[in-house]
Amino acid sequence: MLDFGTGANMFSSPPMTEARPQLLDRLQRPLRELRISVTDRCNFRCSYCMPEDVYDEGYRFTRRAEILRFEEITRLARLAVQRLGVRKLRLTGGEPLTRRELPALIQMLAPIDGLQDLALTTNGSLLAFQADALARAGLRRATVSLDALDAPTFAKLSGGRGDVAEVLRGIEAAQAAGLSPVKINCVVQRGVNEHAVRALAERFRGRGVVVRFIEFMDVGTRNAWQPDSVVGADEICAMLEGLGTLERLPATHHGEVAQRYAYADGQGAVGVIAAGPRPCCGDCTRARLSADGRLLNCLFAEHGTDLRAPMRDGVGDDALVAAIERAWGARGDRYSEQRAERWSRDGRRRLEMYQVGG
Ligand code: SAM
Ligand code: SF4
Ligand code: SF4
Cα of 243 to ligand 3 centre, how many Å? Predict the structure, then answer.
């Protein structure tokens, strides 16, 4: 039986302290986390994110000149942390490890005064080679996306491009490099990889790796999302029954998206991230920076604020801070809470997951 009481506060992200006055949006939510997409390219073609029939050889990704340079990313990150209250940075993509010299960017971001957490989300395929360099550069934690443990399902889900053994080596390398706790994200789709839920939980139980199961989300417009392909959080929890008593853990910080559970016997933790019907928009303190320099207020954003053009036009820091303040101050996004309403207004152009960075 799952026990939803409170338990040990283990395997959590570092708590974020809140010392300074905060920039608040229209719903009084502070800006705490910036997710930075360092590229919109990827070496996988996950069906739920970049289906290969759409993202084929002829697909035109953002040109190199349009992608933010490391100096530009660092400048925005520094302003976000030192002047706007951001405490946590997460590098994502596309596949961030396909961006050349990523450790050099991490080396530039890690020393930012006031930064409390620096993390990476990756598909893990190139992690075995890079984990050491990333950790030495100052990366603190890594989240690896892994949707199945069996080779055929994994290969299919990655669009025929991924090798699960390589990803598992990447996870081991990340642990060995001290990027802990390593977290695993598994997007659960009905009829596709439900069998992976239990297999992943069993494999990583007691190994210091937190597995987080994510409801399939209707991000973007190209992933053939259907309401009945979603496996709900309660169902996911039910699949874990019998692995040990799970105790619900309290949130470690404002805006935490995962419901976390610890095994009562001390063998680790798992998380479930619900897209709905338990939306967490009220606590959402994350902004996203797209690879081409747009600031996005929500994972489901349709538009962003272009920060690249003013930077390349030579504006000063105050003007950039003011632009971010205006964008966040006007933020009223609460997509998950409004999803039912939005389903009936389909056809609107939303940004795709690989552009927004997950
Ligand atoms: N390429 C990296 C990776 O896969 O970890 C980072 C970028 S990816 C867009 C970030 C996260 O978004 C991944 O964990 C991925 O599984 C998740 N994701 C992508 N499309 C999704 C969808 N439709 N629903 C839920 N999660 C999704
Ligand atoms: Fe690439 Fe990550 Fe999207 Fe998969 S989820 S296609 S690995 S960006
Ligand atoms: Fe945040 Fe948007 Fe997700 Fe709501 S839907 S939790 S506002 S990113």
Answer: 31
Compute, in angstroms, the gap from residue 97 CA to the centroid of ligand 2.
11
Ligand 1 nearest-atom number relative to CA 37: 7
Torsion of CA 80, 84, 90, 95, to 10 degrees: -50
Let me know if residue 20 belongs to a domain.
yes
Please count the structural domains in the chain.
1
The count of other CB atoms within 10 Å of the CB of residue 70 is 17
Phi, psi (deg, nearest 5) at residue 36: -110, 115
Nearest-CA neighbor of 113 among 86, 150, 140? 86
Radius of gyration of the chain (CA): 19
- Residue to probe by mutation, ligand 1, list 35, 39, 40, 49, most atoms within 8 Å of CB: 49
Chain segment 80-97, per-residue pLDDT in tens? 999 999 999 999 999 999
pTM, two decimals, is 0.89
Q: Does residue 193's CB lie within 6 angstroms of at least one atom of ligand 1?
A: no
- Contact (CB, 8 A) for 13 and 117: yes
What CATH number is given to the structural domain containing 344?
3.20.20.70
